[in-house]
Amino acid sequence: MRRILGIHRPGPFHWVGDGFPVKTVFSYDNFGQQLSPFLLLDHAEPKHFEPAAKPRGVGEHPHRGFETVTIVYAGELEHRDSAGGGGRIGPGDVQWMTAAGGLVHEEFHSRDFTARGGLMEMAQLWVNLPARDKLAAPRYQTVLDRDIPVVALPGDSGQLRVIAGNFAGKAGPARTFTPINVWDLRLKAGHAASLDIPEGHNAVLVALNDTVQVNGTDDVPASRYVVFGQTGGGITLAAQAGDVKCLLLTGAPLDEPIAGYGPFVMNTEDEIRQAFVDYREGRFGTMPVRELA
Fold this sequence. Notes:
9% of the residues lie in helices and 49% in strands. The protein is mostly beta strands.
């Protein structure tokens, strides 16, 4: 059984732009090496937005040195970036943006969602890149719900979507630079499931909506997360009072220094300073002209 290293609370609630009320569940500021290659996870908990004339969201801003993975549970987002990536994603869809050498992007509620209003819920994960790939060319992957394999868990206990990596012989569609698993898990109330985790991987479980019991001993309330050791086999999860929605992330640690400041995550402070220079001098590209509605 995989050893539990700690169960932790998320950071305080805050807004990202005017469209995403989030809690930072975890960050590399606190557990960088224990979570590597995962850097940060923001969860925008379910919130109803009234219809509006102008899309809410976050405007143009730069990134370098890592990837952002946005999972939509409810609502609809539109993305554009200076490398030509972009698109619209809705419930169950994922956008996987590799900033790598640098780009500028924006994320807003879609125009259709803005006009009708409704429930919005999403999670955004930051995945670190190894030093050799931090200045690679940016890329963008739209991972649609219909293309994500769904594995039924034994005993009709729930299901697991394989966004990246592998589970039970199914491979996720997202392309990654290093070995990682991004598993979107649903567990039915009153049921339990055992999950194997690759030896040597860091692993973190995030309870998104309700309490989940881990390894038969520890109750993990909504918004809290569990950090596991790198060895010892798998874990068991049990849903008690209600159906549970979780993210389970595992990855081979990079074992490299982490230097981060705002939207940049590199290996050294000098590289961070160079990122600011390159951004100010326009080397991250420019955003395409927005089409009129």
